[in-house]
Amino acid sequence: MSSTPWRRLTVSRDDRTTRLDTWLVARVDGLSRRQVQKWIANGAITVNGRAARKGRLVQPGDVIAIFRQPVSPHWPPQPDPDVPLPIVYQDDHLLVVEKRSGVFSVPQSPSETGTLAGGVVARFPCCTKVGRSAGDGGLVQRLDRETSGLVIVAMNQRVHDMLIEAQGNRGIEKTYRALVECPAGREIPSEITTPLTPAGEGRKKMRADRDGLACRTEVVGARQFGDWRLLEVTIHRGQRHQIRAHLSNKGVPIAGDALYRGKGVLGLQRLFLHAGGLRFTHPVNREPIQLHSPLPRALQCILDHLQIQSGPTRLDQSADQQGD
What we know:
The chain is of the alpha+beta class. It has helices spanning 20-27, 33-41, 116-123, 157-168, 242-249, 297-306, 314-322; strands spanning 7-10, 45-47, 50-51, 63-66, 87-90, 94-99, 148-154, 172-181, 191-192, 196-199, 205-208, 217-225, 228-235, 273-281, 288-292. The chain has three domains: 7-66, Structural Genomics Hypothetical 15.5 Kd Protein In mrcA-pckA Intergenic Region, Chain A, CATH 3.10.290.10; 87-167, Pseudouridine synthase; 170-322, Pseudouridine synthase, CATH 3.30.2350. It has seven helices and 15 strands. It is globular and about 65 Å long. The two termini are 40 Å apart. The relative contact order is 0.12.
């Protein structure tokens, strides 16, 4: 996201007090309310220099900056059959695929290639127009570029909407493994609920802010070796960079996470964060689904070298139950 606003507006003395999203849609051609609400959630709209909050009422004199330019809400991702797409689960209604580190989840422009969404629609054209925004390609959740692991993909809009609703109601449990810098004896809270807001140059990272976006990260397991600790972390909804920002804020940044001051480990060229577990109820047949993705080889090699024995964690138990 550019550090220079695409549009800057000032609320006049004659304007009625109304919701920010309603005010913007009435004054900026090409903006939809859904698009404005998404930008507010992603920190792309500020009021008086601070990230706007959902439901905020505008006041005379407020200076509103928009850091993204509206595009057609209907463009699809570029199909790209060269993007790896390991399929962990598939039926007539949804897929669960593995995203590799280094691959963007969705495109930022209609011409961008090499994304997970592009890999999906190249093989499943029915997903082309499925999603909440342009370029989604059916993806129900997104992972950061350097994060690997499991992603749910809906095969039609009805199923997508049902999964989004379930996610909003804490009906989708996502479990990650993260290696953090953490000297022995340092305590990590089992639950982190610090609100987060976009910050920094280009608003590329998240920082703690009591008026920010509500979110919760649960630490459900850990293994220690020297100054490194392997964590098992669970979230349900998830804000941008939530796990990375929450752990860094508690003084235990993820290995390889330069954006949040995480130290490198043994020459690792990526972030040590892997979305390894999913638990949810199938939106159509109501059957429980529990899936597991093992650590990528590069990450497992780091653990082997550190001689970390992860033991029978919840993810390992999930794999045993599936017969992996």
